[in-house]
């Protein structure tokens, strides 16, 4: 739905008033409507900085160049020359003194990062730190990066961090591809961990990324699920679009558009998991990607909530997901190198008034992906969660005006995200190139100020 504040800002008759009142003027985020290109960073200038003794700079340089970026190692003299991407290898930062490299790298470049620019910093993996000071220093890099995101967000610039295991430094191509590209328009202030936990896939393709893959998306009839089904299909996947029977018309329309298969299924029904597993084997011989997107809310403060509202939310948002995964994993219906993505929520991170049931399930999913990931890593399967913040969907359109306006502004880019923004991150996590990322929960929230 339209962002009223953006409209008022752009209108010559009202723009001055909005500015006089000191209201935000959200930047137009540069998004990409299509599938991944072979060289998504072509024509973009990337400044690569490094702390002494870092171990990821070489790989970052290769990944940037492979994606078509023009990599430079020093700021151009001319002050009007802008930088599109700043990547800093801070894996050498293990003492407070070495953190000075962050200041030295970013202080001069801050005013020169172009609108809709990207910042990506790599830090040493916390678990590999030699001592408490080294671990604290790495965690300090995260605080630095999150603050950069808050300072730069008004220009549509995102800043994200990757903790990188020493041996996993050659797993950064996918990360550069996503976090330095247009697809990350609404993902900022996030910290992901790149590890060797999952064995590398046989092949990593970049354009298209998912040819020949079979994907299941639950709750695909509208909103984030619909955008995800479309996005996965754009990358060449065959998508099975599941939703409740009442949504069959929307499902049919979507599937005829993307060449997918509609599936009327209430995921919380008795034996839905068994039926689903049987169907996937019979029709496709298995499945490669599972996106657990279907979710419901039944909001009431706990004292007023009836047991039915509690049970319904627990069943759809959590129990059904666990049952489906059990059926798909135990029968090896989910193939090796598979991908599981669960839709969590900012409510799961921070809790929310009137959402004890919903927040319990969404927090459970954060714990679930962290616990399941190591159990399936040997098969090359990754399991991650995506936690959307304020996303412009039908759910949000029903909010009272002021609640909606506030919700939209409480993030670094001062606006709501689109279902497509969430679909972009989900799709990236489903690609072979994201094999270094498992057990993570990543927010798509424009760096929301709530639960940050
Ligand atoms: P939505 O309500 O627009 O769509 C959810 C879809 O799931 C619907 O098509 C619905 O019919 C389907 N569904 C519900 N119960 C089902 C069941 N038992 N079996 C099969 N399908 C079922 O939701 P959305 O806003 O697109 O959100 C998608 C996911 O993202 C949800 O899990 C939600 O909790 C999460 N999320 C959304 C937001 C947001 O801002 N929209 C924020 C945080 C988290």
UniProtKB/TrEMBL annotation:
Biological-process GO terms, alphabetical: monocarboxylic acid metabolic process
Q: Which PROSITE patterns match?
A: ADH_SHORT
User: Known SMART domains for this protein?
Assistant: PKS_KR
Lineage, top-rank taxon, reads Bacteria
Q: Which Pfam families match?
A: adh_short_C2
Sorted alphabetically, which Gene3D superfamilies does this protein's record hold?
NAD(P)-binding Rossmann-like Domain (3.40.50.720)
Residue span(s) of domain Ketoreductase: 213-389
What the record says about family reads: Belongs to the short-chain dehydrogenases/reductases (SDR) family.
Q: Which NCBIfam families match?
A: PRK08261.1
Recorded protein name is: 3-oxoacyl-ACP reductase
The organism's taxonomy opens as: Bacteria, Pseudomonadati, Pseudomonadota, Betaproteobacteria, Burkholderiales
């Amino acid at each position: 739905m339209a962002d009223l504040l953006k409209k008022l800002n752009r209108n010559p008759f009202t723009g001055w008033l909005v500015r006089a009142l000191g209201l935000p003027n959200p930047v137009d985020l540069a998004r990409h409507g299509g599938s991944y290109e072979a060289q998504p960073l072509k024509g973009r200038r990337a400044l690569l900085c490094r702390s002494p003794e870092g171990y990821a700079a070489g790989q970052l340089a290769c990944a940037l160049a492979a994606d078509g970026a023009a990599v430079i190692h020093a700021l151009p003299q001319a002050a009007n020359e802008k930088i599109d991407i700043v990547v800093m290898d801070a894996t050498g930062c293990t003492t407070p003194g070495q953190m000075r490299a962050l200041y030295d790298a970013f202080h001069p470049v801050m005013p020169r990062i172009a609108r809709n620019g990207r910042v990506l910093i790599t830090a040493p993996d916390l678990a590999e730190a030699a001592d408490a000071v080294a671990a604290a220093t790495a965690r300090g890099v995260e605080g630095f990066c999150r603050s950069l995101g808050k300072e730069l967000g008004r220009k549509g610039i995102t800043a994200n961090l990757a903790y990188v295991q020493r041996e996993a430094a050659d797993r950064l191509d996918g990360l550069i591809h996503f976090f330095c590209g247009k697809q990350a328009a609404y993902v900022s202030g996030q910290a992901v961990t790149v590890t060797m936990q999952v064995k590398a896939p046989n092949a990593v393709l970049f354009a298209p990324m998912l040819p020949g893959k079979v994907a299941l998306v639950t709750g695909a009839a509208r909103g984030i699920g619909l955008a995800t089904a479309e996005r996965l299909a754009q990358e060449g996947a065959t998508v099975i679009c599941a939703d409740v029977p009442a949504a069959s018309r929307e499902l049919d329309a979507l599937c005829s558009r993307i060449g997918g298969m509609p599936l009327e299924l209430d995921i919380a029904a008795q034996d839905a998991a068994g039926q689903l597993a049987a169907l996937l084997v019979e029709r496709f011989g298995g499945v490669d990607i599972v996106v657990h997107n279907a979710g419901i809310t039944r909001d009431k403060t706990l004292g007023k909530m009836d047991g039915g509202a509690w049970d319904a939310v627990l069943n759809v948002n959590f129990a059904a997901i666990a049952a489906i995964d059990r059926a798909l994993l135990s029968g090896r219906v989910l193939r090796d190198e598979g991908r599981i993505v669960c839709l969590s929520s900012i409510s799961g991170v921070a809790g929310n008034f009137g959402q004890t049931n919903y927040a319990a399930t969404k927090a459970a999913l954060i714990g679930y992906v962290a616990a399941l990931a190591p159990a399936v890593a040997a098969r090359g399967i990754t399991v991650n969660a995506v936690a959307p913040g304020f996303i412009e969907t039908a759910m949000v359109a029903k909010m009272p005006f002021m609640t909606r306006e506030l919700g939209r502004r409480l993030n670094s880019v001062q606006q709501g995200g689109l279902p497509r923004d969430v679909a972009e991150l989900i799709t990236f996590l489903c690609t072979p190139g994201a094999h270094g990322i498992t057990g993570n929960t990543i927010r798509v929230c424009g760096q929301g100020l709530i639960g940050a």
